[in-house]
Specification:
- The structure holds 2 protein chains of 2 kinds.
- Chain A has 8 helices and 18 strands.
- Chain A is of the alpha/beta class.
- Chain A has 2 domains: about 230 residues, Rossmann fold, CATH 3.40.50.300; about 110 residues, Distorted Sandwich (Coagulation Factor XIII, Chain A, domain 1).
- In chain A, α3 packs across α5 and α4 packs across α5.
- The longest helix of chain A is centred in the middle third of the chain and has 19 residues.
- Chain A is globular, with a radius of gyration of 25 Å.
- Chain A starts with a strand and ends in an 18-residue tail after the last strand.
- About 0% of the residues of chain A have low confidence.
- In chain B, α4 runs antiparallel to α7 and α4 packs antiparallel against α9.
- The N terminus of chain B is likely disordered.
- Chain B has a two-stranded antiparallel ribbon with strand order 2-3.
- Chain B is mainly α.
- In chain B, β2 and β3 form a beta hairpin.
- Classes of the chains: A alpha/beta, B mainly alpha.
């Protein structure tokens, strides 16, 4: 496959002015005052994306993922290195960034299209599709200043996905719009995938990456720490996220580790409909209380269940602790599932400990239903 | 939904490769500008649309307001003040058209990148297009004003210097490039020094009064400089030759007889057509060079936009 994006040794350095000497007077009077700090948002990033791939870029806030995306789109110029792109690119960095409030939706579709690099003729050809997709038939000649934020975003998204770019770049915009519109966007993205287009998706929602991407790269403080299959990349992402939390904990003590899970029956094999008991072994160096999180994933990365952590409070004593867990009446169908176990602080979502793939759950099912869970269905002829 | 249409599956092996890196060569910058000309047009039309949005007369205002200005000048200078120069309003307006184009483009472009920071930080396109779109809008108004002048000339029966008319496009292109160069550079400098915007208002005022628009060339310090052999000094102001060319074309006369005293008045330099042509061609060459330099300067300055906006 042809590489459509080649990122070579990209670094981006920002100079942060702590005191902005913006006016001429200040510059002349205090030419050197005001401290500035150098901040490396990206250091030596290298990767390529082949045509038809859907690449997820994940990282915590401030990891440089948006900077990287902006460099790829050409909004930012990298400090060193270069990016080579083949084919045209539509970026959804901030939906409707180019809209002119005074102009009608119609005029803005043309204006936005030309900002994305498409000619008037190309926009003419897709105009009706754009309007249909955005569902704004009745408002297309209304100035966009009267639009609600949802309408605004719908119109922008509709333009970007209907211009049929070779590369679509999406930056956390899927979080907007109502659920139905989100589903429509995801649907369109899948359609793009089937058409062999290349998609770059930036998000910090692991679930979105798992659902859409073929491959993911993980950024951490401007460095690329993983590049590979989604499950591997996400495991590294979560571990790094946790590592940060531990590093930044005031006092530095209170490290909790999840040593492992041991099944009461000796193996993590469970028959459909029956219960599974296991113990989680956690070690900590001083008393900690938190809530236990248990996630079950399919091997394809679909989240089957995440428990209500609020309802699973635990108090750990210094030393080794055993916590009993019961998964009651497992409704899963035949297959292997991954168990992730974590400990979060009682309030908020700060993770104290996390163990990805702590165990593999093997479910045995004798019935003929297929899928992930069994839903009893009966048919009655009246 | 499932069947991919044929165009979609096209392989991108043969597609041209675009490179994003810290520095783009001048050739790439020019190529990008040409490639994004559609965007330039959209920005110009949206600028104009927004300007006249909601007004009943719309774009007609852009014709009406210069016409009213022309009428005012006529009343003031030819009816009330009687400065003795026949058809003074034609003289004034032919210079003012040039100045208006320059002034409106430069003053609107100076703050354009700061004002549209949201766009600059989110959408990729050659940033100089923002400044160029302001220049483009000024060109549209310029053309409208020329039309108003032409109609006015037809009404009062004043013929332009037909033999000089071919200089108009040369002079106009020089004016466009000159205006664009200054607009592009100022738009970038303002990002770093916000004061420039206010400074520019003052500079433009001053610049207006050192250009022979309201007074005539022969009434300026130019004759005094000529005696000392320093004529070139007066032409450091690149607006001067353009304004003189427009005045020569539309006002025609170099020397006129005063309508009040009957004495001869020197108005324009008594240059031959060859002199006008060579002045304009030299200016055009200078303007092309300036435009390229402006693009290079802009390229250097745009690298740090994001940390200043």
């Amino acid at each position: 496959m042809t590489n459509v994006i080649e990122v070579e040794d990209i670094s981006k350095r920002f100079t942060i002015h702590h005191e902005r000497n913006q006016t001429l007077k200040e510059r002349i009077l205090h030419p050197r005052s005001g401290s500035s700090e150098i901040f490396d948002a990206l250091s030596d990033i290298n990767f390529t994306v082949a045509q038809g791939e859907t690449l997820g870029i994940v990282g915590h806030n401030g990891s440089g993922k948006s900077t990287l995306l902006k460099c790829i789109c050409g909004v930012l110029k990298p400090t060193t290195g270069q990016i080579r792109l083949r084919g045209n690119l539509a970026a959804l960095l901030e939906l409707g960034a180019g809209f002119q409030h005074e102009l009608s939706g119609r005029d803005n579709v043309y204006l936005y299209g030309s900002m994305l690099g498409f000619t008037r003729k190309m926009v003419d050809a897709i105009f009706d599709d754009v309007v249909a997709f955005s569902e704004l038939e009745h408002f297309i000649d209304t100035p966009v200043k009267f639009y609600s934020s949802g309408m605004y975003v719908r119109l922008a998204f509709a333009v970007a996905v209907n211009v049929n770019p070779d590369i679509l770049v999406v930056d956390e915009v899927l979080a907007v719009g109502d659920e139905r519109f989100q589903a429509k966007c995801i649907d369109r993205i899948r359609h793009f995938q089937r058409e062999g287009r290349t998609i770059l998706l930036v998000t910090h929602q692991a679930d979105t990456v798992r659902a859409i991407c073929d491959r993911a790269i993980v950024l951490d403080h401007g460095n690329m720490i993983a590049d590979g299959p989604v499950t591997d990349a996400l495991r590294i992402f979560r571990e790094r996220l946790l590592g940060d939390v531990v590093d930044h904990r005031p006092g530095g003590s209170g490290v909790v580790t999840i040593d492992g899970l041991t099944a009461a029956s000796g193996s993590f094999e469970v028959r459909h409909g029956s219960s599974l008991r296991f113990d989680a072994t956690l070690t900590c160096d001083h008393a900690v209380s938190g809530n236990l999180v248990i996630e079950i994933f399919t091997r394809t990365g679909l989240l089957v269940s995440r428990n209500d952590a609020e309802a699973a409070p635990v108090t750990l004593r210094p030393g080794v602790n055993k916590i009993g867990v019961e998964l009651a009446d497992v409704p899963l169908l035949d297959g292997v599932y991954d168990l992730n176990v974590g400990l979060v602080e009682p309030q908020g979502a700060t993770m104290l400990a996390w163990r990805e793939k702590a165990a593999s759950l093997q479910v045995l099912y004798d019935g003929r239903s297929s899928g992930v869970v069994a839903i009893e269905s009966s048919v009655t002829q009246w | 939904m499932d069947e991919p249409s044929s165009a979609e599956q096209r392989s991108l092996v043969a597609s041209p490769v675009r490179v994003v890196s810290a520095r783009a060569s001048l050739r790439t910058r020019l190529a990008n500008l040409v490639e994004r000309r559609e965007l330039l047009l959209s920005l110009i039309t949206s600028d104009i649309r927004i300007k006249y949005k909601g007004s009943a007369l719309g774009l007609f205002w852009s014709m009406l307001s210069p016409a009213l200005t022309l009428a005012t000048y006529y009343l003031v200078f030819s009816v009330f003040l009687k400065n003795g120069i026949p058809f003074f309003v034609v003289y004034l307006f032919s210079g003012l058209i040039v100045w208006n184009m320059f002034q409106s483009a430069v003053s609107s472009a100076t703050g354009v990148i700061v004002d549209r920071a949201g766009l600059v930080k989110k959408v990729s396109f050659p940033r100089e297009i923002l400044a160029l779109s302001n220049v483009g809008a000024s060109v549209i108004y310029f053309v409208i004003q020329i039309a108003v002048l032409a109609i006015f000339l037809a009404i009062i029966g004043h013929a332009p210097a037909w033999s000089f008319l071919w200089l108009l496009p040369i002079s106009f292109v020089a004016l466009y490039l000159l205006t664009a160069s200054i607009a592009v550079v100022m738009s970038a400098i303002t990002v770093y020094l916000r004061d420039v915007r206010h400074l520019m208002d003052v500079v433009l005022q001053l610049w207006f009064w050192v250009s022979p628009v309201v007074y005539s060339y022969e009434n300026s310090i130019a004759p005094a400089l000529r005696i000392r052999g320093l004529t070139a000094l007066y032409f450091i102001n690149p607006m001067t030759p353009i304004i003189l060319t427009f005045q020569r074309i539309f006002y025609v006369h170099t020397t006129v007889r005063s309508t009040t005293t009957g004495l001869p008045l020197h108005i324009l330099p008594t240059w031959s057509m060859a002199t006008f042509a060579s002045v304009n061609l030299v200016l055009l060459a200078v303007a092309i060079a300036l435009f390229l330099v402006a693009l290079v300067i802009f390229g250097r300055l745009e690298g740090n936009f994001e940390s200043e906006l």
